[in-house]
Write a structure and sequence with these properties.
The complex is a heterodimer of chains A (349) and B (1278).
Chain A: H1 12-18, H2 20-23, H3 48-75, E1 78-82, H4 96-101, E2 107-113, E3 122-128, H5 136-139, H6 144-148, H7 174-177, E4 183-188, E5 191-193, E6 195-196, H8 203-209, H9 240-246, E7 254-261, E8 270-276, E9 288-293, H10 304-329, H11 341-344
Antiparallel strand pairs in A: 1-9, 2-8, 3-7, 3-9, 4-5, 4-8, 6-7
Chain B: H1 35-43, H2 64-74, H3 79-83, H4 97-112, H5 114-119, H6 130-150, E1 155-158, H7 162-168, H8 186-194, H9 198-211, H10 220-253, E2 256-261, E3 264-269, E4 278-282, E5 290-296, E6 302-306, H11 308-311, E7 316-320, H12 323-330, E8 338-341, E9 353-357, E10 360-364, E11 369-370, E12 375-377, E13 381-388, H13 394-397, H14 408-441, H15 471-485, H16 492-511, E14 525-526, E15 538-544, E16 550-561, E17 564-566, H17 572-587, E18 595-597, H18 605-612, H19 618-632, E19 637-642, E20 658-663, H20 667-678, E21 681-686, E22 691-695, E23 698-702, E24 708-713, H21 715-719, H22 727-745, E25 748-757, H23 760-775, H24 780-791, E26 796-807, H25 811-820, E27 824-828, H26 833-842, E28 851-855, H27 860-874, H28 879-891, H29 900-906, H30 910-919, E29 924-929, H31 930-938, H32 942-951, E30 954-958, H33 962-975, E31 979-984, H34 990-995, E32 998-1002, H35 1009-1013, E33 1016-1018, H36 1023-1062, H37 1074-1084, H38 1086-1095, H39 1101-1106, H40 1112-1115, H41 1122-1146, H42 1154-1176, H43 1182-1202, H44 1213-1218, H45 1221-1248, H46 1252-1261, H47 1272-1276
Classes of the chains: A alpha+beta (349), B alpha+beta (1278).
Transmembrane segments (chain A): 50-72, 307-329
Subcellular location (chain A): Membrane
Membrane topology (chain A): Multi-pass membrane protein
Chain lengths: 349, 1278
């Protein structure tokens, strides 16, 4: 009754208590749609229509993509030649590692048959297998500073254990050290096919990662030779094989671009390849393959994407059909309160 | 208080006597002006007595119940003594320390004024010999000294001598510092505090691991980034908060106050005030520090203060300066003396000290001190000496936050986090073992492998091994480094996210206009930020009654005078206006003074007319005494104001009418006084020595020459001390008792009024005894009790009153909704059984068709029998069966189950079911009283009670003590997994609020203790409905989803890394750049989770309020449970496989490099988790869109930036990728394929097993279509 909580306003005592009342601002929350969580909002629900059309949409998008991908993949002509075993002379089959480490001439001739007409440019890849270019020790063993700047020549701490052998190695690190050194020369009807090795690496790498003034130094001078030697008069930015190699592969089986053949190859043509089989993959049972391939918009030959898209698209189509049937056969009216749990088991409450 | 200590500690009462000034003289009704009497009381210095129950009923002001309440509370040791009477506990809302302390204040104060009485020159009797007096005083002070010396070292304050005061002791100045840091110590202190959190230590440990050379998985700077990031964010947040505190501190510190400096009062900044200084405060000023009053503008030394800032009570409280000092101040002299007081403590209701002045010692108590933060009101000025300043003031010591609780969901979350740790451990083990095996296989070739070199070949260190420590060590290191790589599997960031989300949720809860109480201008308050989601799972609500369910605004409704009932026939609400007018009209001609009440009281015209009659006849005299008692027998202070607001029409009538406002501590008393005023008995002056009332224009001044004891109190205590001879009395008694029953069954609070004539001889005899008792050193309280009993006997019954405690707005509806929501509402009240039941009925807690089980035993045996009878009768099973059933329930978790007891009953196995089904057709209500609870809770009957209580739909506990309330909460909490919520408004609810999982305080009439102890505070009970059904539901849904999503988000990323590591010869390579790995949970994906956690809503508040049963989702733990966790984990596994293998197959035998692959994975995983979230978002706001799509864009931006820095090996990657269609096709495929199972699952679930929420949501959204508008409300209430 006497709860005079700032309600009355008379004089005297009460008045004095109320002087402060108007000054004290009310704590009433400010009204706004935001604070009351009443902002306009879109509240999607899964109506049968939405579900079916979502599946339909997926199938409509996916099936054509799948078909197109599959066609693209089928368009690619690819010649793969595995040569690491074939290129070992029969006498050395039992001790491949010794053979590969010896200094004898390891040239080996291979003949490839073109199964289908190949339009230029034909990409020449080498494919290594079981080679963990993604091993942590390997990936980290490089010095990006050193590759770019002359002044960072001695910046090799990241390259251990291939950082120096008395002097700093440029380019240092395991990656550069293990540079692939098989070479291929192609000929057709005894006529040399030029392999263009320019522009096989990323332009961005050539221009910004590998210095124009950085020259190989003190490279492959150790006791153990890991791979290719580099011409120390060519700056790193032009050593495209190195640049390609230094983009370490993501998976233990990988291809690297070797060069491009810029003439068309006709069906059933025979291509002679002289392989200089220098690279030691025998110590870890790695396979070596030579790959000639054309490309399409999708890249190389790979049916996976097409098949996957077709599968998902097909599945979606099937699901949309299935749900159509379900909704027709056993419709549940949306928002029907008789499905509420407390209405379903009346004994409950 | 917030720390959970009881307000009045039960420490040895003698060593720290609560200053309970007693002197009921102020409330004394018609007492003789006998000087001996007053002087004798004068001897009795109020402060040093431990006399909670001293003379309570004596001069009657006191309701017995109150006293018992006090006793019970103050000295638990005595509970056995009290328990016999404790049924009356809580008859009044004010029974706990705050109230009794208030009382003390006013009474204690009035004591001081005894000198006035002396000054009147009315003297006589024996004890006004000054010598004697001072001796006695000295004697007392000695005793105080003893008390104080029990404390280690009393604080010495030399009045007006700050130099000496501060010479010896290092008292703090009055500068306050709520800020935690200064510029200098900010960094170290903030870091120190931050590293107290486990999460940060985890970060630190991971970062430290990463610094070890063999384990350097990430770059060193990168690995420190997450830690630095959180540290910085938190530091900035802390710093900002602290800066604001600094600013407000500065404002506060630079305020000015008048301080006595070199003989004159001069302005001085607050922060420069020292203990010992004398400060003058003017009206309406805020008090700068805790001060002992020396004098006030009032010659008698009274000051009024408002303690709003301190305890939230808006009524004025009186404080008194000691007479000794008042006179000196008044004469203009300077006071000097020594105050000994206790060390600073946080008890704002207690102050023990004494003052030594001119060789005299006198005690000081709570009534002599004014505290910082209060405002001086209605008093021109006061002068006081500073005793506690700055940080040591009670207000500052009380400003701590309530202890934090941990939410249920969070503890479940920890259980799942343990599972995640198991996954983490397994994955690390797999990697380590793989590494070991791989090394073993390649042992001989480790130096010839081009990609693995364990020794240096050239240079100086040729031949040394390089980072190779032997296969076992390498295996171990690989284990450690995989921990570093997989670190985010343990979602540490989740804790930070959750904090932010809860903060955002609180923002919206606080801002909810539906939870704003305009009558008290109070918003909803979130005092605890840790348990928002618990609000969605509450199963038991324990509610206080008075002030919580009811308004605690008392209205005088009915009176029984001399066995006759008044007020029953009047329809108050309709006629109140009319009657009021008639009152004023009839009262008008009587005298010049018309009293205008500030509030209107309906009156019974019959009684009104009766009071107009001549004062003759028993019944008429009884009526007179009845109203006299109502008017005088209280502590209410009348405040007169010239009426300015009287309307023009009445202006001539009310020319010099005065408005009177009653300020009092007890709403009951206010109601009674106001009612009496309406009937013509207006209290208009109350000083410590006398009371003046206006009876229909005739001024009566008390004490006058008759001696009478007027008593009002609870029926149980008064009825037992009535005179029991006259037959006629028997009749009245009978009638009154039946009226009492009638009143309480209507839910009214009843008081009985009785009186007794006293002869002078009796009075004198009693006075002697009283004095002896009150000055005795041992067993004082018991002696005082006995003394009181001497005079409080043979009382004559006059009548009884019925006061209505109005139900708060919306309470029945709220309770009904909560009940429908499957929440059990238990009411724990101090009221009588009848009152409790009637309130129960009126707020729809009880319905007429409920079977009431009443347990009110008076012995253990009786209780046991009652319990077992009830159990047998209603077929309640024992706990063993229940456990079995609970297990059964758990097994069937995924099914929709109703509230457990219903399930239990409908699903019992054959053997039991037959019996159950028959008996459970009626709903049970258990009513149990505090007395029985004493026997039950302390003995082994607890489980029996539990069984019974949980089978009942409603439980009402009446006459329960505060600690029993906590005991009942504990009963449920310790025996079930169900969440409990306690809601209350008074200090007596504090223990319960702190005990329950969620404590809600009502900012009501009873101060702020409950609010201070609570986790949430609000203005009205009815907001509880919205808090639980709407905000609780939302918060639970949001946080539940947030946790699962965060688990998923981190796990899918880690699993993706894991698959990749398996194809890198277990070498813990990450294809992702270091920065991307770090940014993933910090930048790329964090914002959408937070936004969704704060803003997503499954259902609108309308729907949730309309169908309270939707709340059951929280009970069934629908948004977070083991099942969902495992489903999510399986989904995570699938998604991570898709994420990993689609790119692997797409780029099989291709020239893809590790950085391109990593970039693809980064983008895919970010888009994937965001799409996953987008699929589950139920309400798309603009902000949500921005967050989800913005995250993807930001990720791209970051990737582009990272790929544009030539120093990084991944330079230029994204530019190359973006040109290739394969890249885009892979992403599209990954997203669709990864989400497909989830989508199908969701659709199937919604089609075949729609959840309640789902249906309600459909109904809500499709409501616009007419055919979906259902008669759902009808069905849902079935």
């Amino acid at each position: 009754m006497m709860n005079s909580n700032a309600t009355s306003s008379s004089s005297g005592v009460a008045g004095s208590t109320e002087i402060s009342t108007p000054r004290r601002n009310s704590k009433r929350p400010k009204y706004s749609k935001f604070t009351q969580q009443e902002l306009p909002a879109c509240k999607p629900i899964l109506t049968p229509g939405w579900v079916i059309s979502a599946f339909m949409l997926v199938s409509i998008v996916f099936i054509p993509i799948g078909v197109a991908s599959l066609f693209a993949s089928r368009d690619v002509v690819e010649i793969v030649d595995r040569y690491e075993t074939a290129c070992i002379p029969p006498a050395s089959k039992s001790h491949k590692v010794e053979y590969i480490q010896s200094s004898e001439d390891k040239t080996c001739n291979r003949t490839l048959r073109v199964l289908k007409r190949m339009k230029q440019p034909i990409y020449v890849y080498y494919q290594l297998d079981n080679f963990y270019q993604n091993h942590r020790r390997y990936v980290k063993s490089r010095s990006d500073e050193q590759l770019k700047y002359v002044r960072s020549e001695n910046d090799t701490s990241a390259c251990k254990p291939e950082d120096n052998n008395g002097l700093s190695i440029v380019p240092c690190g395991l990656i550069a050290w293990s540079l692939f050194n098989d070479t291929y020369s192609f000929s057709r009807n005894n006529q040399q096919l030029t392999v263009n090795k320019k522009g096989i690496s990323w332009k961005s790498d050539r221009e910004h990662k590998f210095g124009e003034k950085v020259y190989p130094k003190n490279f492959q001078n150790g006791k153990l030779i890991g791979g290719a030697h580099l011409n120390s008069s060519i700056p790193l930015s032009e050593q495209e094989d190195l640049i390609v190699w230094m983009r370490t592969a993501a998976l233990p089986t990988f291809r690297k671009l070797y060069g491009k053949i810029e003439v068309d190859l006709q069906e059933n043509e025979l291509i002679q390849v002289a392989v200089e089989n220098n690279y030691n993959t025998y110590s870890f049972n790695g396979k070596k393959k030579l790959v000639l391939s054309t490309t399409t918009w999708l890249g190389g030959k790979n049916d996976f994407l097409g098949i996957a898209y077709l599968t998902v698209g097909g599945l979606s189509f099937f699901l949309s059909m299935a749900f159509t049937v379900v909704y027709l056969a056993k419709p549940r009216r949306l928002g029907d309160s008789s499905y509420l749990s407390w209405n379903r088991n009346p004994g409950g409450h | 208080m917030t720390s959970g200590e009881p307000l009045l500690s039960s420490s040895d009462p003698l060593s720290a006597p609560p200053p309970n000034p007693l002197s009921r003289i102020s409330s004394l009704g018609c007492l003789c002006p006998n000087a001996s009497f007053s002087s004798s009381i004068f001897e009795d210095t109020p402060n040093d007595l431990f006399d909670v129950n001293e003379g309570e009923n004596l001069f009657s002001a006191v309701d017995k119940a109150l006293r018992e309440g006090n006793l019970e509370y103050c000295s638990p040791l005595k509970s056995s003594f009290c328990s016999a009477e404790s049924q009356i506990l809580q008859q009044f809302p004010l029974k706990c320390p705050p109230q009794d302390r208030k009382r003390m204040v006013s009474w204690g104060g009035s004591m001081e004024l005894q000198q006035n009485s002396l000054a009147f020159g009315i003297s006589g009797g024996s004890s006004h010999d000054p010598e004697n007096k001072s001796q006695r005083i000295r004697h007392k002070s000695m005793q105080i000294d003893d008390n104080l010396s029990h404390e280690e070292n009393p604080r010495l304050i030399y009045v007006n001598d700050p130099r000496t005061t501060n010479d010896k002791y290092e008292f703090t100045g009055n500068e306050i510092r709520t800020s935690k840091y200064t510029l200098i110590n900010f960094l170290p202190k903030n870091l120190f505090i931050q590293f107290h959190r486990v999460a940060y230590l985890y970060f630190l440990a991971i970062a430290a691991l990463n610094q070890l050379p063999p384990l350097a998985v990430f770059g060193r700077t990168v690995s420190l980034f997450p830690l630095l990031f959180v540290l910085c964010v938190t530091a900035i947040k802390d710093g900002y908060e602290d800066w604001r505190r600094h600013r407000s501190d500065q404002n506060e510190n630079n305020r000015e106050a008048l301080v006595l400096q070199s003989g004159k009062f001069q302005f001085k900044k607050w922060k420069k005030i020292w203990a010992g200084e004398v400060v003058k405060i003017c009206a309406d000023d805020t008090i700068p520090c805790d001060m002992v009053l020396l004098g006030t503008s009032d010659p008698s030394g009274i000051a009024y203060i408002q303690t709003m800032n301190l305890d939230g009570e808006s009524n004025l409280k009186t404080r008194y300066a000691r007479q000794e000092t008042t006179s000196m101040v008044f004469e203009g002299g300077t006071v000097s003396g020594l105050i000994r007081c206790e060390q600073p403590n946080r008890n704002i209701y207690e102050f023990t000290a004494n003052m030594e002045m001119k060789g005299k010692r006198f005690p000081l108590s709570q009534s002599n001190i004014i505290l910082r933060g209060c405002q001086l009101k209605n008093t021109e000025w006061v002068v006081g000496v500073v005793v506690y300043a700055g940080q040591e003031t009670k207000a500052m010591l009380n400003s701590a936050m309530s202890p934090s609780k941990r939410s249920r969901l969070e503890s479940y979350m920890n259980r799942e986090t343990l599972w995640l740790s198991v996954f983490l451990f397994t994955m690390c083990l797999v990697v380590a073992l793989g590494m070991g095996l791989w090394l073993q296989c390649h042992k001989d070739r480790l130096d010839s492998l081009p990609y693995y070199r364990k020794t240096y070949f050239g240079g100086r260190s040729a031949g040394k091994s390089y980072k190779f420590y032997g296969i076992p060590m390498e295996t171990f290191f690989s284990f450690l480094s995989s921990i570093i790589v997989f670190q985010i599997m343990i979602p540490i960031s989740l804790y930070i996210t959750m904090e932010l989300v809860r903060l955002g949720q609180s923002y919206f809860m606080i801002g909810d206009k539906h939870m704003y109480d305009s009558s008290t201008d109070s918003r909803f308050q979130c005092r605890s930020l840790n348990i928002n989601e618990d609000l969605g799972q509450i199963r038991y609500v324990f509610s206080d009654k008075t002030g919580t369910l009811t308004e605690n605004k008392m209205e005088f409704r009915k009176a029984s005078v001399h066995g006759k009932n008044y007020g029953s026939s009047v329809l108050m609400s309709d006629t109140s206006q009319d009657t009021n007018i008639t009152v004023s009209r009839t009262a008008a001609p009587v005298g010049k003074n018309r009293w205008k009440l500030k509030s209107e009281v309906p009156v019974d015209s019959e009684l009104m007319a009766f009071l107009r009659k001549e004062l003759a006849g028993d019944e008429r005299i009884a009526a007179h005494e009845f109203f006299l008692t109502l008017t005088t027998c209280n502590t209410v202070i009348p405040i007169l104001t010239r009426s300015l607001s009287s309307s023009c029409m009445d202006s001539e009538f009310y020319e010099d009418a005065e408005a009177v406002d009653y300020q009092g501590e007890s709403p009951d008393e206010q109601a009674l006084v106001a009612a009496a005023s309406a009937y013509g008995y207006t209290l208009f002056e109350r000083t410590s020595g006398h009371v003046v009332i206006d009876v229909n224009g005739e001024k009566l001044r008390f004490p006058n020459d008759s001696v009478k004891v007027l008593v009002k109190g609870a029926d149980t205590s008064i009825l037992s001390i009535l005179k029991r001879d006259a037959a006629e009395d028997g009749h009245i008694r009978h009638a009154t008792q039946s009226h009492l029953n009638e009143y309480s069954s209507e839910g009214l609070r009843t008081l009985v009024i009785a009186s007794r004539d006293l002869t002078d001889a009796e009075l004198e005899e009693w006075q002697c005894m009283y004095e002896d008792a009150s000055t005795s050193l041992t067993d004082r309280s018991i002696k005082l009790c006995q003394t009181a009993a001497l005079i409080e006997c043979n009382l004559q019954l006059i009548g009884a009153t019925g006061i209505e405690d109005k139900l708060q707005e919306g309470v029945p509806e709220a309770i009904e909704s909560l009940r429908q929501a499957g929440i059990k509402v238990w009411v724990l009240t101090g009221d009588k059984q009848e009152t409790a039941i009637s309130i129960g009925l009126s707020c729809k807690l009880l319905t007429s068709n409920m079977q009431q089980i009443i347990i009110n035993g008076t012995s253990e045996e009786e209780c046991r029998n009652l319990l077992s009878d009830a159990k047998a009768k209603y077929g309640v099973r024992t706990s063993s069966c229940r456990n079995w059933n609970l297990k059964w329930k758990r097994n069937a978790e995924s099914h929709y189950l109703e509230i457990p007891n219903d399930t239990k009953l409908s699903n019992v196995p054959m053997g039991f079911s037959e019996k159950e089904e028959g008996t459970m057709s009626t709903e049970l209500a258990l009513i149990i009283d505090g007395n029985s609870l004493v026997y039950i809770l302390e003995k082994d009957l607890e489980s029996e009670l539990f069984d019974l209580a949980t089978s009942c739909k409603v439980v009402l506990c009446c006459r329960v003590a505060p600690l029993q309330k906590a005991g009942i909460v504990d009963l449920i909490k310790s025996r079930t997994d169900d969440m409990t919520l306690a809601i209350g408004d008074g200090a007596n609810d504090v223990s319960m609020i702190q005990m329950a999982d969620v404590g809600v305080g009502i900012c009501g009439q009873e101060g702020r203790q409950a609010v201070m102890a609570s986790d949430f505070a609000m203005g009205q009970f009815r907001f509880l409905k919205r808090l639980l059904l709407v905000h609780g539901h939302w918060n639970y849904q949001r946080v539940g989803y947030l946790v699962l999503y965060n688990f998923y988000r981190n796990a899918v990323f880690v699993l993706m890394l894991f698959w990749y590591i398996l194809s890198t010869a277990f070498s813990t390579t990450s294809a992702l750049t270091d920065w991307s790995s770090v940014f993933y949970s910090v930048i790329y994906t964090s914002v959408p989770t937070i936004v969704v956690g704060i803003l997503d809503k499954d259902l609108s508040h309308k729907t949730l309020l309309e169908y309270p049963k939707l709340y059951g989702a929280g009970h069934r733990q629908e948004s977070y449970n083991m099942y969902l966790f495992w489903i999510t984990m399986i989904d995570t596994l699938w998604q991570s496989l898709v994420l990993f293998y689609i790119p692997v197959f797409t780029y099989r035998e291709s020239t893809i490099d590790i950085w391109s692959m990593g970039s693809l994975w980064t983008i895919s995983v970010v888009i994937l988790v965001n799409m996953h979230l987008a699929m589950d978002i139920q309400r798309w706001l603009l902000l949500t869109h921005a967050a989800v799509w913005g995250s993807i864009i930001i990720t791209y931006a970051c990737v582009v930036v990272l790929d544009s820095i030539p120093r990084f090996p991944n330079y230029g990657t994204i530019y190359h990728l973006a040109k290739s269609p394969t890249y885009w096709l892979s992403i599209l495929l990954i997203i669709c394929l990864a989400l497909l199972p989830r989508f199908i699952f969701k659709v199937l679930h919604q089609t075949f097993w729609p959840s309640d929420i789902q249906i309600a949501r459909e109904a809500e959204i499709l409501r616009k279509r007419p055919n979906h508008v259902q008669s759902k409300p009808d069905q849902s209430s079935s």
